[in-house]
Amino acid sequence: MAVYVHDSQFMTRRGAVLVVIIGLHVFIAWALATGLARRALEVIAPPIQTDIVEERKTEKEPPPPPPPEFQKPPVEVPPPDVTIDLPVEAPQTTAITAVAATPHPAAPPVHVAKTPAKGKHFPATEDYYPAASKRLGEEGVTTVRMCVGPNSKLSEPPAVTHSSGSARLDEGAISLAKAATYQAGTEDGKPISDCFSVNIRFQLTK
Fold first, then answer.
1. Which of 39, 108, 128, 198 is the Cys-Cys partner for 172 at CB 3.0 to 4.6 Å?
2. Per CATH, is 114-202 categorized as 1.10.1200.10?
3. Are the CB atoms for 178 and 158 separated by under 8 Å?
4. Is 131 exposed, middle or buried (0-12, 13-18, 19+ CB in 10 A)?
């Protein structure tokens, strides 16, 4: 005959575990009812804070504008000035207009009588022949220009226009021209100023 021996210590431990489990369930039920479990979870694990981060889109900078194209400005040629002669209507008038007569040919020019000035009296060349030229045998012809005024006198000193080749003979010709007398030229009978030239020859006599 088998004999079952009950371990009292084992039964005690089993009862204690059962009591603990029951108490734990009661505590959980009470914590849920009073909100203690929610506050404990908030302490242990704080609420997760979520921030909405707006994604910033990087705007791409537009490309630089193309370089301006330099175009030559069109050359403006001014239009030519055109003058249009429009016929002008003559105003109607009752006044008497003179009719232009047919032009007659111009009268022929009137001949003007003119006489040139001249030498009235020239002294002999021998009197004005330089002595040095005679000794040296110098001969020649000097052309002298004289201008005579209305008073029949020289209006300016005589001038040599063509030399004889000797300064002494040219000086003698100028002195001879100053010593001469003259007659003024005339135009329509009135004395005028006039100029003329004379050849004065110096020649040795044999």
1. 128
2. no
3. yes
4. exposed
* Chain centre distance of CA 25: 113
HEC letters along the chain: CCCCCCCHHHHHHHHHHHHHHHHHHHHHHHHHHHCHHHHHHHHHCCCCCCCCCCCCCCCCCCCCCCCCCCCCCCCCCCCCCCCCCCCCCCCCCCCCCCCCCCCCCCCCCCCCCEECCEEEECCCHHHHCCHHHHHHCCCEEEEEEEEECCCCCEEEEEEEEECCCCHHHHHHHHHHHHHCEEECEEECCEEECEEEEEEEEECCCC
Q: Which tens digit of pLDDT belongs to each residue from 118-158? A: 988 899 999 999 999 999 999 999 999 999 999 999 999 99
Listed by start position, the domains of the chain span: 8-43, 114-202
Q: What is the pLDDT of residue 145?
A: 95
Helix axes 36-44 and 8-34, enclosed angle (nearest 10):
90
**Would the pLDDT of 100 be above 80?**
no
Tell me the percentage of the chain whose pLDDT exceeds 70. 57
> What are 47-80's pLDDT values in tens digits?
555 555 555 555 666 777 776 665 665 656 555 5
Q: Which tokens belong to 153? A: 């006198």
